[in-house]
UniProtKB/TrEMBL annotation:
Keywords: Actin-binding, ATP-binding, Calmodulin-binding, Coiled coil, Motor protein, Myosin, Nucleotide-binding, Repeat. Pfam families: IQ (PF00612), Myosin_head (PF00063). Residues 1-87 form the Myosin motor domain. Belongs to the TRAFAC class myosin-kinesin ATPase superfamily. Myosin family. GO terms for cellular component: cytoplasm; membrane; myosin complex. One of its GO terms (biological process) is actin filament-based movement. This is Putative ovule protein. It comes from Solanum chacoense (Chaco potato). PANTHER family: MYOSIN (PTHR13140), MYOSIN-12 (PTHR13140:SF270). PROSITE patterns: IQ, MYOSIN_MOTOR.
Length: 205
C-alpha cells in the first residue's frame, strides 16, 4: 500500500493511466516550454510552467490534451501539429529578421552612399572653386597684359608720331633755309646784273 501511495504521489500511476488512454506523446513542462514557448512568448512571463503549458495548448486549439503534475500529454498527431505551427512561426520570424537585416543593410548602404555623395560634392565644389579662381587669375593677368600692351602701343605710337613731327619740322626748316638761300642767291645775282648794266650803260653814254 505504501508503494502504491508513493507511485500515486509521484504521478506515475496517473502517467500510466493517461498513456493507456491514448496519449502517446509526453513532455515535461520544461521540455514543452523550451520547444513550443515561441508559439506564445507572452505567456512565459508571469506564469508558472504548468499554466504556461495550458495557455499554449489552448491558444493552439488543441483538444483532449492532458496536464499531469510535471508533464504534458498529447494525443496522436498533436505533437506534429505543434511542430508545424512552430515551423511556421520560426519561418515567419526568420523572414521578418531577414527583412530587418535587408532594411538595415539598405539603409546602411544608403547612408554610406549619401555620405560619399556629400563628400564628392564637397570635393567637386572645391575643385570647381580652384578652377574658377585660376581662370579668374588668368583673365586678370590677360587684362593686365592687354592694358600694358595698349599702354606700350600708345607710347610707341606717340613716340613714332613725335619722331615723325620732328622729321617734318626739320624737313620744313631745311626747305625754308634752302628757299631762303636760293632767294638770296637770286637777289645777289640780280644786283650783280643791275650793277653791270648800270656800268655798261654809263660807259655807253
Amino acid at each position: 500500500m505504501n508503494v502504491l501511495n508513493q507511485l500515486r504521489c509521484g504521478g506515475v500511476l496517473e502517467a500510466i493511466r493517461i498513456s493507456c488512454a491514448g496519449y502517446p506523446t509526453k513532455r515535461t513542462f520544461d521540455e514543452f516550454l523550451d520547444r513550443f514557448g515561441t508559439l506564445a512568448p507572452d505567456v512565459l512571463d508571469g506564469c508558472d510552467e504548468k499554466s504556461a503549458c495550458i495557455a499554449i495548448c489552448d491558444r493552439m486549439g488543441l483538444k483532449g490534451y492532458q496536464i499531469g503534475k510535471t508533464k504534458v500529454f498529447l494525443r496522436a498527431g498533436q505533437m506534429a501539429e505543434l511542430d508545424a505551427r512552430r515551423t511556421e512561426v520560426l519561418a515567419h520570424a526568420a523572414k521578418r529578421i531577414q527583412r530587418q537585416i535587408r532594411t538595415y543593410l539598405t539603409r546602411k548602404e544608403f547612408i554610406a552612399l549619401k555620405r560619399a555623395t556629400i563628400h564628392f560634392q564637397k570635393l567637386w565644389r572645391a575643385q570647381l572653386a580652384r578652377v574658377l579662381y585660376e581662370q579668374m587669375k588668368r583673365e586678370a593677368a590677360s587684362i593686365r597684359i592687354q592694358k600694358h600692351a595698349r599702354s606700350h602701343s600708345a607710347r610707341k605710337s606717340y613716340k613714332e608720331l613725335q619722331a615723325a613731327a620732328v622729321v617734318i619740322q626739320t624737313g620744313m626748316r631745311a626747305m625754308a633755309a634752302r628757299n631762303e638761300y636760293r632767294q638770296r642767291r637770286r637777289n645777289k645775282a640780280a644786283k650783280i646784273v643791275q650793277t653791270q648794266w648800270r656800268g655798261f650803260h654809263a660807259f655807253s653814254t
